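pinned: reference chain
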Amino acid sequence: MPGKHVLIDYWGAKGLQDTVFIEKAMRAAAQACGATVLQVHLHQFGSGCGVTGVAILAESHITIHTWPEIEFAALDIFMCGQCDPSDAIAPLAKLFLPKKTTITEVNRGPL
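pinned: its structure tokens
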């Protein structure tokens, strides 16, 4: 199987405008999965606005898009090989402290 995809939606989350915090969270998620971070690129859309970003991994990627005005964040974690993106769920929740979370897990590729 090529990999596993985990989609996480957070409502009532913290730190959604803070690029330093978000990079720390993405790196912590990758580390929890045993993944190798190759590069992190984040863009903040201005004061009071959201952040979009990607952590490029040797095993694939982690992306985030935030809407601080509604305290919402959407994360996308895809990994292949021995890394399990589900291992990122707990450390991300501990950092973002969401009031509500929705998680979708999808196996990608042939069965």
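why pinned: The two ends are 6 Å apart (CA to CA). The longest strand covers residues 3-11.
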